[in-house]
Amino acid sequence: MGKIKVTFPDGAVKEFEKGITTEAIAKTISTSLAKKAVAGSFNDQLIDYQQELVEDGELKIITKDSSEGLQVLWQTGAILLASALSELYPEMHFGEGNVTEHGFYFDTDNVDGQIAETEFEKISQKMKEYVKANKTIEYKNLSEKEALAAVDGDPYRMELVKEIAEKNDGHVAVHILENFVDVSRGAKLASTKGVKIFQLLSVAGAYWKGVSSNPMLQRVYGTSFFKQKDLDAELKRRQEARERDHRVIGNDLDLFFVDPKVGAGLPYWMPKGATIRRTIERYIIDKEVSRGYEHVYTPVLANLDLYKQSGHWDHYREDMFPPMDMGDGEMLELRPMNCPSHIQIYNRHIRSYRDLPLRIAELGMMHRYEKSGALTGLSRVREMTLNDGHTFVTPDQIEEEFKQTLQLMVSVYKDFDITDYRFRLSYRDPNNTHKYFDDDEMWEKSQKMLKAAMDDLDLDYYEAEGEAAFYGPKLDVQTKTALGGEETLSTIQLDFLLPEKFDLHYIGADGEEHRPVMIHRGIVSTMERFTAYLTEIYKGAFPTWLAPQQVTIIPVKNDLHLQYCEQLRDRLVASNVRVNIDARNEKMGYKVRQAQVNKIPYILVVGDKEVAEDGVAVRRYGQANSKEVSTSEFVSEILADIASYSRNE
């Protein structure tokens, strides 16, 4: 039958009979390894434990305690779910099954109607029957004709079969569990017994292949683990995620909403949400102006030629809305980026080296052509306002400006109590350079310069290829979200390209024209994403300085105490404190509980004693007891709280 050479992670090379499996190889190493192993990674591709090896290659044996092992378990959970569904709902069609960051899913199309979560118990019971029976999961390599016959007229799987066959010389790898034939990618366990610990989670809509013009399918989510304690931890994490979900909190606290009649990804900011946003906007503008930035306003529309000149049309077109034909040859585009607009401001006047660094900033509205399936509350929208800034510097000013921008970032993070972040140097992908501006010398120079600046600042960072902007490398600040994920909150990007494309100049000390360098930076991302991030971090309990309503005043009896409450309110409003009086005809205990539910930082209760002594009974959010202080003491306390950005220092 012939021999193949297998290279192991430690560099050792062994010869085996052609057709040997990962399982057989594991047994030659040790019995304990064979028991823990669930799959193989052959030439960096996950393969089934019983899949035959027919060529030379590098093999890594995948065990249960690895992240790859969990991926294999989740792929098996997906086919287990689909097989159970196919038996329970014979008319159901199936799209793709795959894994997520925390589990698995399968896309379905049920002729008789969507599955309700109340049916999960019935579906889980069928899955458990398969697990108990230890059903074999068979791996086969079929011809296109055989695979089409196997999926038995399912339109979605037939489409997948044809696509896979076209890419693989007419062959299609499938997994078979009972009567279900799965053409989704991914290695599976050899049998169902490994999926003992699982839970179905939720259902959601998902366009076929993520394209909004395709049919809407129903995505059924689940998760599974090798140990019960890991499943328990995951369910606890999901509960925490639900409690912190900014969409849920935003609805409960009436911060924002999205109306499908208007359009997905186009949020409406309600008064409370608008107050939070306005507070952030005023804060960041004041902060930037104090650091030498000049704030501007620029149009949300621009001639398409501007984005062709900048390169956005060539490199970013799929994320831009279609141009608007004005009928006279003029094509207008909703801007996806603010940088070309700020370049026009730079170009408005002749610049001298004495003018640099020139720092231009704007809360600039932008539009992105996001697919419906990718939109999420405020964190992923089609219309957004970016805290954007561009600095034009001489080459010898780069490091100092880079340092000052980082110091500004760190100062802002301190005020918002953001502590869990790390720095990422983002480079272009050297193996996929066609995505980026074609100038090897520029990329080498700018990447080295950015790295040198970080080293000079003695900051820890990690490097990531393929994460750069199309025009240059960047420093990304990666923050931990409240839900355990990671996202880019701030960025600093070096750009030698756009000054070249727009022929920017400054007059140097020698009287000659020189080319500036452009530094793009965003400190707090978009107003939408930053508000979503803060909502989840704070769990809706915003610190006093950010809270949409900072104080609620509750009179014990309106007829006796309301006038005093109104005087107190006016005094606080005069000091720019956001306050209301709850004079509803409800019991005081109910009004106190409602204020706690609405997460208002300060509750002031006013009765006979408070009126007589010019005082208030103060109760902080989250505290069970109140304290009695004079009105002057309270005013001083809350103003100090606001002035310190609610930090306990």
TrEMBL record:
<keyword id="KW-0547">Nucleotide-binding</keyword>
<dbReference type="Pfam" id="PF02824">
    <property type="entry name" value="TGS"/>
</dbReference>
<feature type="domain" description="TGS">
    <location>
        <begin position="1"/>
        <end position="63"/>
    </location>
</feature>
<keyword id="KW-0479">Metal-binding</keyword>
<feature type="binding site">
    <location>
        <position position="390"/>
    </location>
    <ligand>
        <name>Zn(2+)</name>
    </ligand>
</feature>
<keyword id="KW-0030">Aminoacyl-tRNA synthetase</keyword>
<keyword id="KW-0862">Zinc</keyword>
<dbReference type="GO" id="GO:0140096">
    <property type="term" value="F:catalytic activity, acting on a protein"/>
</dbReference>
<keyword id="KW-0820">tRNA-binding</keyword>
<dbReference type="GO" id="GO:0005524">
    <property type="term" value="F:ATP binding"/>
</dbReference>
<dbReference type="GO" id="GO:0016740">
    <property type="term" value="F:transferase activity"/>
</dbReference>
<keyword id="KW-0694">RNA-binding</keyword>
<dbReference type="InterPro" id="IPR033728">
    <property type="entry name" value="ThrRS_core"/>
</dbReference>
<dbReference type="InterPro" id="IPR012947">
    <property type="entry name" value="tRNA_SAD"/>
</dbReference>
<feature type="domain" description="Aminoacyl-transfer RNA synthetases class-II family profile">
    <location>
        <begin position="271"/>
        <end position="543"/>
    </location>
</feature>
<protein>
    <recommendedName>
        <fullName>Threonine--tRNA ligase</fullName>
        <ecNumber>6.1.1.3</ecNumber>
    </recommendedName>
</protein>
<dbReference type="InterPro" id="IPR036621">
    <property type="entry name" value="Anticodon-bd_dom_sf"/>
</dbReference>
<dbReference type="GO" id="GO:0000049">
    <property type="term" value="F:tRNA binding"/>
</dbReference>
<dbReference type="GO" id="GO:0006435">
    <property type="term" value="P:threonyl-tRNA aminoacylation"/>
</dbReference>
<dbReference type="Pfam" id="PF03129">
    <property type="entry name" value="HGTP_anticodon"/>
</dbReference>
<dbReference type="InterPro" id="IPR006195">
    <property type="entry name" value="aa-tRNA-synth_II"/>
</dbReference>
<keyword id="KW-0436">Ligase</keyword>
<dbReference type="GO" id="GO:0005737">
    <property type="term" value="C:cytoplasm"/>
</dbReference>
<keyword id="KW-0067">ATP-binding</keyword>
<dbReference type="InterPro" id="IPR002314">
    <property type="entry name" value="aa-tRNA-synt_IIb"/>
</dbReference>
<dbReference type="InterPro" id="IPR045864">
    <property type="entry name" value="aa-tRNA-synth_II/BPL/LPL"/>
</dbReference>
<dbReference type="InterPro" id="IPR018163">
    <property type="entry name" value="Thr/Ala-tRNA-synth_IIc_edit"/>
</dbReference>
<dbReference type="InterPro" id="IPR047246">
    <property type="entry name" value="ThrRS_anticodon"/>
</dbReference>
<dbReference type="InterPro" id="IPR012675">
    <property type="entry name" value="Beta-grasp_dom_sf"/>
</dbReference>
<keyword id="KW-0648">Protein biosynthesis</keyword>
<dbReference type="InterPro" id="IPR004154">
    <property type="entry name" value="Anticodon-bd"/>
</dbReference>
<feature type="binding site">
    <location>
        <position position="339"/>
    </location>
    <ligand>
        <name>Zn(2+)</name>
    </ligand>
</feature>
<dbReference type="InterPro" id="IPR002320">
    <property type="entry name" value="Thr-tRNA-ligase_IIa"/>
</dbReference>
<keyword id="KW-0963">Cytoplasm</keyword>
<dbReference type="GO" id="GO:0046872">
    <property type="term" value="F:metal ion binding"/>
</dbReference>
<dbReference type="GO" id="GO:0004829">
    <property type="term" value="F:threonine-tRNA ligase activity"/>
</dbReference>
<comment type="similarity">
    <text>Belongs to the class-II aminoacyl-tRNA synthetase family.</text>
</comment>
<comment type="subunit">
    <text>Homodimer.</text>
</comment>
<dbReference type="Pfam" id="PF00587">
    <property type="entry name" value="tRNA-synt_2b"/>
</dbReference>
<dbReference type="InterPro" id="IPR012676">
    <property type="entry name" value="TGS-like"/>
</dbReference>
<feature type="binding site">
    <location>
        <position position="520"/>
    </location>
    <ligand>
        <name>Zn(2+)</name>
    </ligand>
</feature>
<dbReference type="InterPro" id="IPR004095">
    <property type="entry name" value="TGS"/>
</dbReference>
